[in-house]
Amino acid sequence: MSSHELRVTTDAVDWPAPDDHAALRLWLHLLGTSQVVKSVIRRRLHEEFDTSLARFDFLAQLHRSQDGLRMQEISSRLMVTGGNVTGLTDSLEQEGLVKRSADPDDRRAFRVSMTAEGRKRFAVMAKAHEQWIIGVFGVVSKREMRQLQELLSRIKHTAQREDRR
């Protein structure tokens, strides 16, 4: 059976026909929704904190790691180039939000961690960020959120399996 053929089950499920294009329409809808939400977050971060989504995401990764992260780890987690990470690190370091230190396990590498000021400023941004997300998702009940999470998890796991092929 090819990956695009329907699997026949005994479930009474309304599977889309191969020429229905429902999956393609859903994918485009998910992508469009994600882009609009991301646009709202970008705009609000800029307006309220004079920062970018890239800087927020960078700080969020550091916030999750009490011991800091190697520059390469940050690059991998953010899925950006090392040059981008270096530029963000330089900028955030100049503002006193992060600091670089020699990695005790690899003297060729640096670890980046948040300063006390960085943690304080990030906490304020993260709280606002969460409220913006709650506002956008406020039209969906908790039950619907759980259902949507389950559905998206199923799609994600299928995509991950396909990606490993």
Outline of this structure?
With 165 residues, the chain is mainly alpha-helical. The chain is built from six helices and three strands, in the order ααβααββαα. It has helices at 22-49, 53-63, 71-78, 82-94, 116-137, 142-164, and strands at residues 69-70, 98-103, 106-114.
Which features would summarize this protein structure in a list?
mainly alpha, Arc Repressor Mutant, subunit A, 3-stranded antiparallel beta sheet, globular
Describe the fold and architecture.
Helix 1 (22-49) packs across helix 5 and helix 2 crosses helix 5 (116-137). 64% of the residues lie in helices and 10% in strands. It has one domain: Arc Repressor Mutant, subunit A, CATH 1.10.10. It has a 3-stranded antiparallel β-sheet. The chain is mainly α. It has 6 helices and 3 strands, in the order H-H-E-H-H-E-E-H-H. Mean pLDDT is 89; it is low at 1-6. The protein starts with 21 loop residues before the first helix and ends with a helix.
